[in-house]
Amino acid sequence: MSDDTIRLVTIGRILRRRRRLLAVLAVVGALVGYGASVLFPPRYTTSASVLLPGQWEERELLTQAEIATSSVVLDRAAAALGRPRVSGSELRDRVSAKAADGNIIKISGTADTPERAQRLSDQVAGQFVTFAARLAGDNPDAGAADAPEELRKTVVQTDRRITDLAEAADPGRTVESVQGRAELEKLRAALLDAMKKLDEADPATSKAGMVVMGPAARPTGEAAPTRMQLIVAGALLFFLLAVIGHLTAARMSRRLRTAPEIAAALGSALLGTVDVPGERPAHRPEDRGPRARIRRLLGVDTPWDVPPPQPSGGEAGRRIRYRRVCARLRDELPASRRLLVVVPDGDEVAGRAAGQLVAEAGSDPSPGSSSRGYPVLRVVGVSVSGPLVPDRDTESGALVVLSAGSWTAGELAGIAEACADAGHEVVGVVVAGTTRGRPTRTAGRPPREAAPEFAVHGHATGGSVR
């Protein structure tokens, strides 16, 4: 799988063959999420809205939002809350403000209870309005706030004085009286225009008077992430990590999966592929410990990334494949010879295939012909960690039978070297697989496909298996 693209069928195979393990890991992730929800108490969030009358540009609204969460406003809000252990710096992580449509600043507060969240939002909104009004000059305690009103009064008095002067002027039609009245009217117009510009430029009339649009609503539900969200997130996280771990391990695996790669690693020719009915292998004595039982319970005692069993072609088709392998062995060898059938330890599929191959070789259709008969086969098991093949005795070659996707190139090279050290030439490779279903037995079938008893490791020769 190291060079293959990850496909949906691969993920489906993981879900199907590792469903128990994935379910257990999802439960563990849910428990971790529940523990996180216990460590982090629930939070509640609510918002208070502040209306800014007048015309405001977008950048000005953003500035007001920053002022709402400034240290001055938060410090005053913390003091008004009456909680000595809460400071303005601590409120900064629990208070946020943003500009909304319609010249509205939404101030959100988060606390561990709905009541505290509501009170926090209201306090920050109130302190923001007070501080903004002071900045805009809308503070009745400031002396400068009365200056525009005093100026207006002075302008009104001046206008009345101009009217009195115009009425007291010479009502005649002299040039001097007309010019005087005209100058007075110009002065009146100039004063009114100046007062109009003053009103337009006065921030207290255009952008003051911020209003809190009612108290904040009391929250009825927890703020994200809630306890249920943490539990679901933990289960999903562990599930995804398990799937990604399986995919990563499969891509990093160096086990050979194709018959040509296996034959090249052993340095011999591929004689064919055979199959055995797919069934769960019997548990060996060394697989009866607590760890083995846990592995069987979780479904991790068999590889998940082995090719799925192919549909069975029937007993007749399977026997034809074994006979073809025996025929190729007969054609490759100059005369009837004895061969060792080398099977890696732990390869249950290869062991069953080797037993069937020995049975087919024993049912030679031409037993009377010494030159055209099938070779005599004897099965030996070889440990891949320390391969040791019996020395050459009556056998004059070795036939390696193994399943795909179970061994690396280095392990197979070790088996080939062990055969060479024992004086056996590897005459061929047979790759075994599994098929779905167990076809019914037919008449005339050779002995049943039980895995043969492997010869003892070492230099013992033993007799042939017929």
Automatic annotation (TrEMBL):
Keywords: Cell membrane, Membrane, Transmembrane, Transmembrane helix. Belongs to the CpsC/CapA family. Its main location: membrane. Residues 4-65 form the Polysaccharide chain length determinant N-terminal domain. It comes from Streptomyces africanus. Residues 437-466 are annotated as: Disordered. It holds the Pfam family Wzz. The chain crosses the membrane at residues 21-40, 228-249. PANTHER family: CAPSULAR EXOPOLYSACCHARIDE FAMILY, TYROSINE-PROTEIN KINASE. The keyword Cytoplasm does not apply. It is found in: Cell membrane. This is Capsular polysaccharide biosynthesis protein.
